[in-house]
Amino acid sequence: MLVIQEHVPLAPLTTFGIGGAARYFAEVHTDEELSEALAWVHKNNQGSVILAGGSNVLVMDSGYEGLVIRIASNVHSFAGNELAADAGCNLLSLIRAASEKGLGGWESLAGIPGTLGGAVRGNAGAFGSEIKDFAHTIRALNADTGEVREFNNAECAFSYRHSFFKHHPEWIITHAFLQLEKIDPMDAKKKIDDTIAEREKRHLQNVMAAGSFFMNPIVPEHVVAQFETEKNVKSREHRVPAGWLIEKSGMKGATVGGAMASMQHPNYIVNTGNATADDVRKLAMDIKVAVHQQFGVTLTEEAAIF
Ligand SMILES: Cc1cc2nc3c(=O)[nH]c(=O)nc-3n(C[C@H](O)[C@H](O)[C@H](O)COP(=O)(O)OP(=O)(O)OC[C@H]3O[C@@H](n4cnc5c(N)ncnc54)[C@H](O)[C@@H]3O)c2cc1C
Q1: For the domain bounded by 221-305, which CATH number is listed?
Q2: Atom of ligand 1 nearest to the CA of 209
Q3: What residue's CA is closest to ligand 1, atom 22?
Q4: Distance between CA 246 and CA 249 in Å, rounded?
Q5: What pLDDT score does 202 carry?
Q6: How remote is the CA of residue 277 from the centroid of ligand 1, in Å?
Q7: Pairing mode of beta strands 21-28, 5-9
Q8: Which residue has a Cα nearest atom 50 of ligand 1?
Q9: How many CA atoms lie within 13 A of 200 on its CB side?
Q10: What ranges do the domains of the chain cover?
């Protein structure tokens, strides 16, 4: 049964560890509880927002005035090469569970924090793979109308850190169906371990941050050329890493209060211990201004802010 709590601190539920409390808060484990939560929102004329693993959000210091619905559904099953999983399943746990069944192909996504639903919404990716390469059908519930619909891969309109769901927050992802490949369980385990080791080496793990704060932007030809010459790597889709632009703009290591543009990975804004959401937003603005002055490029936030 659904329990609505009041004044629940949100900072501990995010990897940033920042932000105020939810005026109302409910954890939903099933489709029925999600529907109940939405009915409560309509009946009480409140706003609502979805929180899952909390690894790509910045919660304001003032908290959230309406109902925060935390997706905590956690059931998955395998049939042949197919994985059917609730949106709230932890991505790494699913990758590990699949590997034990001899199913995989998606090991390079290992170590991306958060849930399957969060990964689908932002088309999470790493080391050349994205969740779109594996998710063939997404089931979602429309918070306004109560309609439940299945979206095929094309209808999800996946692209770099983007999906249909990102711009249609009324659709809440409830389940995802993925096609995996047969793989030797020992090979899969090694690939998972190697990926996580590589992420640790690159300081991509276990930091108080929301991952990459900005998306890698599409930039003018001369900026692509500068990046390719300097780094000796090909840009994809005319995008260059936001971290490189930030470093070139002199903002690596920049701070506002307790927020810092990471020295190891300048596109991570990290909470060095006592950062407020205000610190993060001010630093993000300073970074945007510096990058715009240097390159004429506008950075866009990847992290959701509420
Ligand atoms: C240390 C670190 C490393 C990271 N590395 C990577 C990386 O390599 N690649 C990458 O792509 N990302 C990376 N991220 C970002 C983050 O892990 C991903 O964006 C992740 O997929 C977010 O999932 P989540 O469950 O935590 O979503 P949350 O942070 O809880 O939510 C993010 C957004 O998605 C929405 N949302 C969540 N669940 C649903 C749902 N079921 N239906 C509809 N909307 C939903 C929320 O409302 C919010 O707007 C990293 C983050 C951290 C902290």
Answers
A1: 3.90.78.10
A2: 53
A3: 118
A4: 5
A5: 87
A6: 18
A7: antiparallel
A8: 211
A9: 6
A10: 5-71, 76-201, 221-305
298: which residues sit within 8 A by CB, 6+ positions away? 217, 288, 291, 292
Residue type, 141: L
Cα–Cα dist 293/290, whole Å: 5
- Domain 5-71: top CATH class: alpha beta
pLDDT of residue 204: 79
Pull the structure tokens for residue 141: 């519930």
- Res. 1: pLDDT tops 90: no
In our burial notation (b when 16+ CB lie closer than 10 A, e otherwise), range 130-163 reads bbbbbbbbbbbbebeeeeeeebeeeebbbeebbb
Structure tokens at 184: 């030797």
Domain 76-201 annotated CATH 3.30.465.10: yes
User: For the segment 93-149, what is each residue's pLDDT rounded down to a tens digit?
Assistant: 999 999 999 999 999 999 999 999 999 999 999 999 999 999 999 999 999 999 999
Pocket of ligand 1, beta carbon within 6 A: 15, 49-57, 71, 87, 112-115, 117-119, 121-122, 124-126, 165, 172-173, 204-205, 207, 209-211, 304
Task: Give per-residue pLDDT as tens, 5-19.
Answer: 999 999 999 999 999
pTM for the complete prediction? 0.97
Q: Are 46 and 5 in contact (CB under 8 A)?
A: no
CA-based radius of gyration for the chain: 20
CA distance linking residue 298 with residue 290, whole number of Å: 10
Phi, psi torsion values for 26, nearest 5 degrees:
-140, 135
